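Researcher: We're teaching a course module on how sequence relates to structure. For the next exercise, students receive a sequence and then see the predicted structure as tokens, so they can try to spot secondary structure elements on their own. Here is the exercise chain.
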Amino acid sequence: MHDDNTVIPWVFGLESALSTISSYQRYRDRDDPNAERPYVKVFSDNVAVAFEVPKTEPELKEKLGYLIHFAGIFQTNSLGDNGWLIRGCITSGYLYINKHNPPVNHSEYSQDEIDFFIGPALIRADKIEKELAVYPRIIVDTSSVEFGDTHTPLCDEIMRLWNNHSWLLKSDDGLYYLDYLNIAAKGMDIQNKDDYLADLCVGRSILDDEYRELDEKACAKIDWTRSYVDKTLEKWKIV
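Model: And here is the predicted structure for the students to work with:
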């Protein structure tokens, strides 16, 4: 059990990181105020986001785009504001969701009041995040997304749908992961990337303060993040 002095900063930090998602939702709603919103579940230090695979390509692009920007903006805000290093996975598969919408008046408890989700897609995402991500990155799975009569690897589908954008990077170990700083900049329609520099400096300062107190494995994750941020700033010509 943690005391309030330990828990409260984490709660405020998580609320801050998630508030950026609301900002993106408002930005997105300007174009389509009736767009379907995803199922979002927060538990401990985990955030799960899910959409039903649509039937048309425009819908697929719209929903995949939301997931990509959701993850990219959340990861950017977590690093900039709190110095948090985020790992995760975007995958496709079967997932059962029991989403509870409580009535105004109810007198009896029922199983329908339990809000939960379970399925192979959740297990696979968790396994990839823990065993393959290693560094603070969100892996895009190579599992197939079933769209119509086709079965296309998810990472290939994303690159096909957004062939003019660098949403993904490929690492030396052959894994695709989200280029979250670029995703956040484009998703929030930020024209002046200098605005990011101050936030990123705060996040890097937090990491630097903690670096000397961490073990070798944790320091390797910080070094990886530093390298990624530096390369991104170099591409933006911010040095």
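Model: If you want an answer key for the exercise: Residues 4-89+128-235 form one domain. The longest strand covers residues 39-43.
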